[in-house]
């Protein structure tokens, strides 16, 4: 998500990285709370935070999470090798599957 803060996701498994390892790690990273400075870069994150937490005061108390930056793009489309030639992959999401 180039317009948002960079959140590196490192996946490690001594027996070999599985698809499950990757998906669980993406979920864990997106479920983290963000700093007020990160929240300030996206009005949409605040909007989706309010919608996500409206019915659950416990979730509201945890604050904005990285997943809120996805907005309506809640479907995981996959990974692609980075275009800049670095040894990394980009995660892709969409509002429709």
UniProtKB/TrEMBL annotation:
Residues 3-84 form the DUF6699 domain. This is DUF6699 domain-containing protein. The lineage of its organism: Eukaryota, Fungi, Dikarya, Basidiomycota, Agaricomycotina.
